[in-house]
Design goal:
The protein is an alpha+beta fold. The protein has two domains: 115 residues, CBS-domain (Roll), CATH 3.10.580; 63 residues, Histidine-containing Protein, Chain: A (2-Layer Sandwich), CATH 3.30.1340.30. Helices cover 28% and strands 20% of the residues. The chain has six helices and seven strands.
């Protein structure tokens, strides 16, 4: 499954000179964890996330200091440019969602901008990927059967059953394409595991 099929296309973005307070407001208002930062040509120049803003709340309260801070000490950042991450991990719309998921896990990030060249065309989040895992079993069954039919992998009636994301497929014990059937089923979004049950299907004489 491609990133284009699950990504959000209406992306909330900010500029480098956007105020910190405004960025925080957008994150809260839209219930998102990160905002791509773009220039006037909509080219990606960074990303600002909850993790980038959180350190702003770790500064000591000056009222608890025995010695008053100097006027310039503890200056707070005012714009997104001062806190954003500039080295941004991205994917293309044609990337596999498995690639996006691996990047999120390996790098501990929640959101990845989707780009065409360097222009932002979408964004994909952990929630988007979890939504795939949560697909209804009946929808997964229908898609497996449809894909099998398209490839000419004829199955007996009611040969596909999906429960809690686990697909059980009854296949011909003598078929040489059982491996293909398993691969097709595993490629269906929402399938967590495939179990093949071999059976002998009577041949027409």
């Amino acid at each position: 499954m491609k990133v284009a099929e699950v990504m959000t296309r209406q992306v909330i973005t900010v500029r480098a000179d956007t105020g910190i307070k405004e960025a925080a407001r957008l994150l809260v208002e839209f219930g998102i964890s990160a905002l791509p930062v773009v220039d006037r040509y909509e080219v990606l120049v960074g990303i600002v996330s909850e993790a980038d803003l959180l350190p702003l709340e770790t500064r000591p309260d000056p009222r608890s200091q025995a010695t008053p801070l100097a006027p310039t000490a503890g200056r707070s950042p005012k714009t997104v440019a001062e806190v954003m991450t500039r080295d941004v991990l991205t994917v293309s719309a044609g990337s596999e969602i498995s690639q996006a998921a691996r990047m999120m896990l390996d790098d501990g990030i929640k959101t990845i901008p989707v780009v065409q060249g360097r222009r932002v065309v979408g964004i994909v989040s952990r929630r988007d990927l979890v939504r795939i895992i949560g697909r209804r079993d009946v929808d997964i069954e229908d898609e497996i059967e449809h894909r099998m039919s398209e490839l000419g992998l004829g199955l007996a009636r009611d040969a596909v059953r999906v429960a809690a994301g686990i697909a059980t497929i009854r296949v011909d014990a003598e078929a040489s394409r059982r491996g293909l059937a398993e691969s097709v089923a595993l490629a269906v979004p929402g399938v967590l595991e495939v179990r093949l049950v071999a059976e002998t299907i009577p041949r027409e004489r």
